[in-house]
Amino acid sequence: MSAESNKVSGSRVAAALLTAILAVSTASIFIRFAQADAPSLVIAALRLTFATLLLAPIAWTRHRAELKSLTRPEITLGIISGLFLAAHFATWISSLEYTTVASSVVFVSTGPLWVALLSPLLLNERLARAAIVGLVIAILGGTMIGLSEACVWENGLRCSDIGQVLQGRAMWGNFLALIGAWTVSGYLIIGRKLRATRTRSVSLIPYIFMVYGIAAIALLAIMFVAGQSPLGYPAQTYGWIFLLAAFPQLIGHSTYNWALRYLPASFVAVTTLGEPIGSAILAFFLLQETPTVIVISGGILILIGIYLASRSNQ
Q1: Which of 30, 147, 252, 314 has its CA 20 to 30 A from that of 47?
Q2: CA distance 263 to 258
Q3: pLDDT of residue 154
């Protein structure tokens, strides 16, 4: 069914994942600019809508036969994957209304842990010891970056917002961020299942067109239920959202989905933790935001974790 090769060089996969990390890292920059005029939920809905519309001509002219040949189980899994992706954006974005950015990032960054725990059960993919160590180190680094906004180093480490993590509205926000981690895990696991099946795998363009389309429809529905409109914003805002669709979504997410054909879902999930590193670098050059010692230390741990996990897959 798929026209993609079953084999690809390690250097090509590494280059693709680096490209994905760099592309996804632009998301926080584009979102920050777009949020000057548009609500976060509108940004998420239009991000997936624009991405789907950009894919449509290629999907229908070059992959129409494959789209029509998709089986009911494949379509069902694709719909579930799209709903997981929509739920990830909706819950994670909503979590920021109730809890701190630091706490939200910590909880949503647990995604690779859930993928690692579920992969042996759902994909029959077991982690090597080095991969487990790398996973733990990378998640620790992501946690450090997440806490960087709440913690400062003043004669020792002091975290002013930690006491609010399990209280009131913050508790609900943290739970929403955790749901965001669970749903992105489901999105990656289903992608691995459909993209890496030996007998009949779904090729990249039909898969992402289906998944992004379902996610767009679901997010638009949530947006309208929330009483928000996709119309009436400045042209510049739509430009930032278009860039969000073109780079983080079509290049970043799509490259992760491409890699799921060749790599375990747990490893692809670990590499997504590289996003804060790229975001910090871009923020330094574009927003003049200097990363703290905690952010730099967390980034180093993430890179060590990704390296150890990658060694286990060679």
Answers
A1: 147
A2: 9
A3: 57
Q: Identify the pLDDT of residue 297.
A: 82
Predicted pLDDT at 235: 96
Q: What angle do CA 283, 296, 273 make, to 5 degrees?
A: 75
Q: In angstroms, rounded to a whole number, what is the distance separating the alpha carbons of residues 50 and 186?
A: 23
Q: 67, 59 in Cβ contact below 8 A? A: yes
Do residues 78 and 215 touch, judged by C-beta distance below 8 A? no
Return left, alpha or beta for 155; rule: phi > 0 is left, psi -120 to 50 is alpha, else beta.
Answer: left
Q: Check if the beta carbon of residue 144 is closer than 8 Å to that of residue 308.
A: no
Angle between helices 72-95 and 101-108 (to 10 degrees): 150
Distance CA 268, CA 66 (A): 25
User: CA 50 to CA 34: how far, in whole Å?
Assistant: 14
Instruction: Name the token pair of 235.
Output: 């042209």
How far, in whole angstroms, is CA 164 from its chain's centroid? 26
Percent above pLDDT 90 for the chain: 39
β-bridge partners, 159 = 151
- Give the tokens for residue 115: 């993928």
CA-only gyration radius of the chain, Å: 19
Contact assessment for residue 263 and residue 313, using Cβ atoms and an 8 Å cutoff:
yes
CB 92 within 8 A of CB 119: no
Collect all residues with Cβ–Cβ distance below 8 Å to 11 and sequence separation of at least 6. none
Which residue in the block uniquely carries the two structure tokens 């280059």?
Answer: 15
Give the phi and the psi of residue 63 in degrees, each rounded to 5: -130, 20
Q: Are the beta carbons of 63 and 264 closer than 8 angstroms? A: no
Q: Is 87 exposed, middle or buried (0-12, 13-18, 19+ CB in 10 A)?
A: buried
Looking at every residue in the chain, the average pLDDT score rounds to 83
Which residues are bridge partners to 2 per DSSP?
none
